[in-house]
Amino acid sequence: MGGANGKSGFRLWHNARLATMAESAGLSIVEKGVIAARDGLIVYAGAEADMPASFGQGVESVDCEGRWITPGLIDCHTHLVYAGNRANEFEMRLAGATYEEVARAGGGIISSVKSLRAASEDQLVAQTLPRLDALIAEGVTTVEVKSGYGLDADNEKKSLRAARRLDGERPVTVRTTCLAAHALPPEAKGDKDAFIDLVAGTILPAIAAEDLADAVDGFCEGIAFSPEQIARVFDKAKALGLPVKLHADQLSNLHGAALAAHYGALSADHLEYTDEEGAAAMAKAGTVATILPGAYYFIRETKKPPVDLFRRHGVKMAVATDSNPGTSPLTSLLLTMNMAATLFGMTVDECLAGVTREAARALGLLDKTGTLEAGKSADLAIWDIERPAELVYRMGFNPLHARIWRGQ
Question: What contacts 217, CB < 8 A, 6 or more positions away?
Answer without folding.
Answer: 146, 148, 177, 178, 179, 181, 182, 244, 245, 246, 247
